[in-house]
Amino acid sequence: MFYDHQQIEKKWQKYWEDNQTYKTSNNTDKPKFYVLDMFPYPSGAGLHVGHPLGYIASDIYARYKRHQGFNVLHPVGYDSFGLPAEQYAIQTGTHPAVTTEQNITRYEEQLRKIGFSFDWSREVRTSDATYYKWTQWIFIELFHSWYNKDTDRAGSIDTLIKHFEEKGTEGLNANQNDELSFTSEEWKDASEIDKEDILLNYRLAYRAETTVNWCPALGTVLANDEIKDGRSERGGFPVFQKKMMQWSMRISAYSERLLQGLKTLDWPQPLKDSQEYWIGKSQGAQVQFNVDGHDEIVEVFTTRPDTIFGATFMVLAPENPLVENITTAEQKAEVDTYIEETSKKTERDRMSDVKNVSGAFTGTYAINPFSGEKMPIYISDYVLMGYGTGAVMAVPAHDERDHRFAKKFNLEIKKVVETEEDVQERSFDSKDSVCVNSDFLNGLKYNEAKALIIDAIEKKAIGHGTTNYRQRDAIFSRQRYWGEPVPIYYKDGMPYTLPTSALPLELPEVEKYLPTEDGDPPLGNAKTFAWDEANQKIADTNLIDDKTVFPLELSTMPGWAGSSWYFLRYMDPNNDEVFTNKNLSDYWGQVDLYIGGSEHATGHLLYSRFWNMFLKDRGYIDHDEPFQKLINQGMILGMSAFVYRIDGTNQYVSKNLAKDYKTQEIHVDVSLLKGTTDELDTEAFKAWRPDYADAEFILEDGKYITGREVEKMSKSKYNVVNPDDICNEYGADGLRLYEMFLGPLEQSKPWNTQGLSGVYGFLKKFWNLYFNEDTFEVSEEEPTKAEYKVLHTLIKKVVYDIENFSFNTSVSSFMIAVNELQKLKCNKRNILEPLAVIVSPYAPHICEEVWNLLGHNTSIEFEKFPILNEDYLIEDEIEYPVSVNGKMKFKIALPATLSAKEVEDLVLQNEKMGALLEGKTPKKIIVVPKKIVNIVI
Question: Do 522 and 515 form a contact (C-beta atoms < 8 A)?
Fold first, then answer.
């Protein structure tokens, strides 16, 4: 029977949509299972075949759990704020909302065409005001919270104010920007502005001057993961370091909990390692150094206080505020020039550049508190203001970077840890030795010396032992248009939150999406974007008088804001009273399976964990972590094609002749190849772009053969394969099966369209099991033991594979089972019905169709998954290969229940064995039960 995949797939996609087959109920006695894909950004290019890989895997698992009787939440939505739509708006004037809507429409068409079992009724979009109302609400909650170190959780800012009213800062143990000290009387006497300024020191969402990555061309601040090689990832524009007033999130307060929480999660170890490294816990001491001739103090954090006697110079971050105060007049020009140069590098560049040594001397000296020696103070880009205190005590004998710096600037290198190594030539960084040249620490090992020196530091009142974290607070401002407005207005220069009744604070219309002439963010172009405090409403900006009408915050939230809590909104997407009903978040709890890319390790996955912990602290949800099990899918790689242009000409030489010429390798669109070959359609190439219209070709055997290479699939490499084309030719079920068949989910693997013919052939064979030529024909006859064995072997394998996410081996097992059933000419209902259920998570359209043909008028989706019966897998008979002197001579079929002695006796009685023995007595007989018999003559 002809397998018309196009007609079948359209029919069932319409059925699922009309009947809302995958709509998830919140009212059920079933156990829950929450399957989620990482939030997709709807780009203008749409999907290529690499994108659905993770979605297919999660969809298979969601369908399998439904078959097991779970109430499955498998939603979809769009992380729809983003720079690409804004850049397009700047270039064309098209509102980002228009572009985003078009992109989402395209994405949704493609996703529906692949047959995903999403609950479309729960779709959310971060750029919808009904959604970002709650993103703004969470921001307000963070603003009105502080972190209490004694309870190790966030609390309402009201409890902090109460503490100040009763005790001032006495007994306060809080996460803060600066350590403040005041009495309750001083708090009560303070003005409202001063009180608000003090509270900003403790709020979880706060505004402070911060060094940021500023991209003038994009007019916005960028996160480290949005920059590559000193340029913006989007557009490749230069990025500079700049100090600005910015909103930040106090994620640093959660550093220890974020670390400890990793132990409870079933995540890939490399991903956990990335987060551990990013958080960067280290234990050591905070130490103060006096500056000779100045009142200033340089404070450092060091993990090696035991080496303080070997500290011979100090290095400050160029952006450290101390630099301006302590630099001498003679050194000012050199220092200013160096600071300017450093501003052109991002923090990531500075951290990764370990080879180049640079710096400038401030002309000033610090005093070593233990040796009493003067230590020249330098600035260098290898010290970062955001890590520790923005200053290091340099111990060149025992730190590689300090050593390189000392050699470059001819500074003293003093050995304080015993080693045979010549520390003048190479640093000795090990802790496995004893202290030398270190006064009262001499002869002590690392742990003893560290404890003693910390005690001495504390007795001198110049510091204390402490734990430090590399993780900084997350910058939360973006100077762009297309993002969530921050629900803040300014009165007397102080930020105040809008009342929640005013939410959502909607994005206003603007005439242009660029910063204003005064350098304000694009929202500065809005004509109606001010807060009328008296009337509690948004007002025209020309009414701002700073008495009753006040300016609103002009920055927008970063791209990660909306994606830091979307998994909670899916639980209750249409609720206008709360972000999620507590009963529903208690029911759905953690995401049980989360699939997405590893590139989000230190961005989205950290921020989501932080917001989730915060919401739990404030009593809005009950689970600590958002994602219990996480899988990073690998990439599907493209097979790029290249032509070889002879330098200085418009001549193109075929691949195998290119070695005879000096050529340039140029990517060419894979759609210009003939069929599935490597041959270029030269006429299509000439028509592809105007600069190729006059191309001349040097052919081999009358053909132009392209070069091929496996690379990341991307538009810029012209190696993208559109899933729509695959669905049209091979069907969505073919695409789904092939993507799983390519290899293990976590590994990257190359795409090869030619390989689809194999899975398409399998689908046709599977389809024809249910037909006798063109007639649907299924027998009610009881299956044979051999047929049951094929079925139950498959059940056992597929259950194991799905539960271990080994989807590729399941597809192989389907092929084997269908081939065996075909050989057995099996058309028994008791085999083919459960077979359809087993295959349906992978190929849902074809299985729905055969299920319907089998006489069922409901979807296959909620049918119980077949139960394994091990009895069918027990062998009745074993075919033993019999070897004589290591060479296999014949095979003998014997009952599986025989003992080794019984097998030996029957083999020796066999006629063939008698002929081989020729009356001789075997020297040795080896029987491996149910495997082989080996006889030595």
Answer: yes
Do 376 and 313 form a contact (C-beta atoms < 8 A)? yes
- Select from 79, 61, 66, 81 the least CA-distant residue to 24: 66
In degrees and rounded to multiples of 5, residue 640 shows phi and psi of: -70, 155
Structure tokens at 481: 């248009």
User: What is the maximum span of the chain, computed from C-alpha positions, in angstroms?
Assistant: 118
Average pLDDT over residues 229-256: 87
Q: Note whether 389 and 282 are within 8 A (CB).
A: no
Amino acid at position 833, single letter: E
Amino acid identity of residue 781, one-letter, is E
Structure tokens at 594: 């989360």
Task: Give the Cα separation of 241 and 460 in Å (integer).
Answer: 37
d(CA 341, CA 349): 13
Q: Which pLDDT band holds residue 631 (cuts at 50, 70, 90)?
A: very high
DSSP summary character for residue 15: H
Provide the strand spans (E) within 597-635. 630-632
* pLDDT, position 225: 67
Annotate 349-386 with b (16+ C-beta within 10 A) or e (fewer): bbeeeeeebebbbbbbbbebbbbeeebbbbbbbbbbbe
- What pairing do the DSSP bridges indicate for beta strands 749-750 and 651-653? unpaired
Residue with structure tokens 């172009």?
525
Instruction: Kindly provide the b/e burial profile for residues 447-459, where b requires at least 16 CB atoms within 10 angstroms of the residue's own CB.
Output: eebbebbbebbee
Tokens of 600: 């989000």
Confidence (pLDDT) at 82: 85
Burial 242-272 (b: 16+ CB within 10 A, else e): eeeebbbbbbbbbbebbbebbeebebeeebb
Instruction: Give the pair of three-digit tokens for residue 487.
Output: 């629900």
Which tokens sit at 34?
Answer: 């929450």
Return phi, psi of residue 936, to 5°: -105, 120
Single out the residue of 468, 476, 469, 484 nearest to residue 611, CA to CA.
476
CB–CB of 243/318 below 8 Å?
Answer: no
CB-neighbour burial class of residue 67 (10 A; exposed 0-12, middle 13-18, buried 19+)? buried
Contact 697, 704 (CB under 8 A): yes
Instruction: Determine the Cα–Cα distance for residues 31 and 837; give it in Å rounded to an integer.
Output: 21
Closest CA to 76 of 94, 52, 98: 52
Model confidence pLDDT, tens digit, residues 873-914: 988 788 999 999 989 999 999 988 899 999 999 999 998 998
Q: Are 594 and 629 in contact (CB under 8 A)?
A: yes
DSSP, residue by residue, 842-874: TSHHHHHHHHHHTT--S-GGGSPPPPP-GGGGS
SS3 929: coil
For the chain, the 3-state helix, strand and coil shares in percent, each to the nearest 5, are: 40, 20, 40
Which of 86-100, 226-240, 261-275 shows the lowest mean pLDDT across its residues? 226-240
Print burial letters for 518-540: b (CB count within 10 Å at least 16), e (below 16). eeebbbbbbeebbbbbeeeebbe
Which residue type sits at 154?
A
138 closest CA partner among 700, 566, 652: 566
| Helix and strand counts by DSSP (H, E) for the chain | 28, 36
Q: What's the mean pLDDT when you consider all of the chain?
A: 94
| H or E stretch at 710 | strand 707-712
Among candidates 704, 722, 703, which has minimal Cα distance to 638? 722
d(CA 498, CA 502): 6
Please give the span between the terminal C-alpha atoms of the chain, in angstroms, as a whole number: 57
Q: Is 298 helix (H, G, I), strand (E, B) or coil?
A: strand
In eight-state DSSP terms, residue 714 is -
